Amino acid sequence: MRKLTRKQARFVEEYLVDMNGTQAAIRAGYLPRAANEQASKMLAKGNVRARVDEALAERSRRTGITADRVLRELARVAFANAGDLVNLQTAEVRPVTAADDTAAISSVRIKQVPTPEGMGVEREIRLADKNRALELLGKHLGMFADKVRFEGALPVVITGDGKLED
Asked: pTM to 2 decimals?
């Protein structure tokens, strides 16, 4: 692999900060008006792309953050059943709830409140955003494509007047 120039190495370092090529190019010293184009060129260069990929793999090994782990966590949130986690009558986390399942719990708030019978306890348990987790999983699976991509050939029939036939 060809060695990176000082500016390319700086670009790679900056790119790893936020994965934003344009901002990385600006921080690496490229002119703001040309940063988007420079970022695109940099990421298209084999040696720069290889160094970015290598650095991302290093980070993943070091932190233990992998695509599989992120997907598992999203699945925990997306498919959590509140009734399995929380006693719906008392709003208490069930004692048999597995530690992994509690990942779907966003917050727990317990507050003492005065009642006619004396002090009572008010519990509020919020689960993480299930819809957002499902949306992210769906996008990962390609279920909610913003753009439709068609590959292949369709039979096209043109009528005698030059119009496409439906």
From this structure: 0.57
